[in-house]
Amino acid sequence: MEVVDHEDRPLLIMDARSAEAQKLPQRRITAALFDHAGRIRLSRRALGETGGHVWDFSAQGAVLAGEAREDAAARLLEEQLGLSGLQPVPRAELPPQVTGGAQWVSLFVAGRRGAHLERIQGAGMFLDKDERTGLAEHFPELLSPGLLYCIKSGLL
Q: Going by C-beta distance under 8 Å and a sequence separation of 6 or more, which residues neighbour residue 138?
């Protein structure tokens, strides 16, 4: 993966484990999958060693060295949800304070009309706008900080 400076300029290439262990800044993608009705699919993610879980974006991960952000978003949706042929669209750059520090996180949205998105691999659920707004308002602790920020700021 590419390690970047605090202005998103590439500095060096190193393996992902080493970069993450040293908390070096890197480019990351988070992707929100929408169905034909405008509902977003949330994925259930572990909180780490605590054993708890939160609801988070449909797919997320690192941009590989030399990979375009759009290609990374499509790759992650395929790897994590089993959906190929999607063309994710950039929506926003997320601020470091909601994404775990000095990461460069790009938010993408994607969807597929007429597809049976209920059969996606992995634990998840689809929520409409009212449901995700209510969840953010009444149960914010159940959402990842990045997802909570995007819902409250109107990005999703």
A: none
Q: Band the pLDDT of 130: cuts 50, 70, 90.
A: very high
pLDDT at 148 > cutoff 60: yes
Q: What pLDDT score was predicted for residue 49?
A: 63
Task: For tokens 């993608």, name the residue.
Answer: 29
The Cα 107–Cα 90 span in angstroms is 6
Q: What is the secondary structure of 7-54 as a DSSP string?
A: TS-EEEE--HHHHHHTT--BEEEEEEEE-TTSPEEEEEEE-STT--EE
Query: Is-contact 134 126, C-beta < 8 A?
Result: no
- For residues 90-112, give the mean pLDDT: 79
Q: How many helices (H) and strands (E) does the chain have?
A: 4, 9
6 exposure class (CB count in 10 Å sphere: 0-12, 13-18, 19+):
exposed
Task: Return the DSSP state at 2.
Answer: E
Q: Which is nearest to 73 in space by CA: 85, 63, 83? A: 63
Q: 97 pLDDT exceeds 60?
A: yes
